[in-house]
Amino acid sequence: MSGARDEHGHHHREPESVLSLRVRALESLLIEKKLVSSEAVDRIVGAYEQDIGPHNGAKVVARAWVDPAYRQRLLADGTAAIEELGFGGVDLQVVENTPGVHNLVVCTLCSCYPHALIGLPPVWYKSFEYRSRAVREPRVVLREFGVDLPESVEIRIWDSSAELRYLVLPQRPPGTARLSETALAELVTRDAMIGVAVVPAPAAR
Amino acid sequence: MDSVPSREIADMSGQAALPRKNGELVFDEAWQGRIFGMTVAMSHEACFAWREFQAQLIGEIAHAEREGESSSYYERWLHAFERLLADKGLLDEAALAERTHDFETGRRDDVF
What we know:
Radius of gyration of chain A: 21 Å
Order of helices and strands of chain A: HHHHHEEHHHHEEHH
Largest sheet of chain A: 2 strands, parallel
Number of domains of chain A: 2
Low-confidence stretches of chain B: none
Strand order of the largest sheet of chain B: 1-2
Mean pLDDT of chain B: 89
Mean pLDDT of chain A: 87
Shape of chain B: globular
CATH class of the largest domain in chain A: Alpha Beta
Strand content of chain A: 5-15%
Strand order of the largest sheet of chain A: 1-4
Distance between the termini of chain B: 24 Å
Number of helices of chain A: 11
Helix content of chain A: 40-55%
Number of domains of chain B: 1
Radius of gyration of chain B: 15 Å
Structural class of chain A: mainly alpha
CATH class of chain B: Mainly Alpha
Number of strands of chain A: 4
Number of strands of chain B: 2
CATH superfamily of chain B: Nitrile hydratase, beta subunit
Structural class of chain B: mainly alpha
Oligomer: heterodimer
Distance between the termini of chain A: 43 Å
Low-confidence stretches of chain A: 1-16
Number of helices of chain B: 5
CATH superfamily of the largest domain in chain A: Nitrile hydratase alpha /Thiocyanate hydrolase gamma
Strand content of chain B: under 5%
CATH architecture of chain B: Orthogonal Bundle
């Protein structure tokens, strides 16, 4: 949690300290009534501060699936195209999976990752093992993740850096022609946007 | 589950959308995180449904905009939360005023 001043130059110091006292009073009353615990509040704030999840990235992918013109713009200039949807703060290149090409994102040096779109990186993404093996033997790594690609499919590795992040545009699964953009976004997983998974077809109902 | 952010909360849209910077939640002051956390915690305990709070928040924001108030997002959130708790009989506004006074005068310093 940051104690940063607000960026609009308002002088909130006085009223905010009054608010702060009121919130402390409220917390103490609710604790007395056993309606909340300080530990639960700590855990929740921590979880929400750290994990925004993959939903922003999923919205980008779903839009690209339903709107060919957006897809073109996204592949040509990822940074500008995600700004259209209100996401930014990152220089982004989007790489598209096709029947003949599968893309895989790694950061061999550290753990550069498009946080703004897909939340915090999973532990394995930061591991030395993934960082080294994804480059050396991507086909084997992908198989371990459950993605068994035919030899004819070319695998392209994208090494993220502090300056440029990558996002995989997965292939749209079959049987989704009638789904809305919102329903499509729900199918898109974090792992698919890193390239270690494919987006599964929706479960048959 | 406390540790898994709910999409219903994280993805609130329109004026109720949580303030973010670069995709991450922004709490300009510590109390903003506390009030956010308390609200989520009580919805987890089924003191109210999230959509009830969301409706209260949207109403509070609309009211503040109509009145031309310069209050911050989380100040409006705090009002909405207090009002919802009062409506549910979970909070006595007089007790809150008294407890706030205790903190103001230094008679109390800890929340527990």
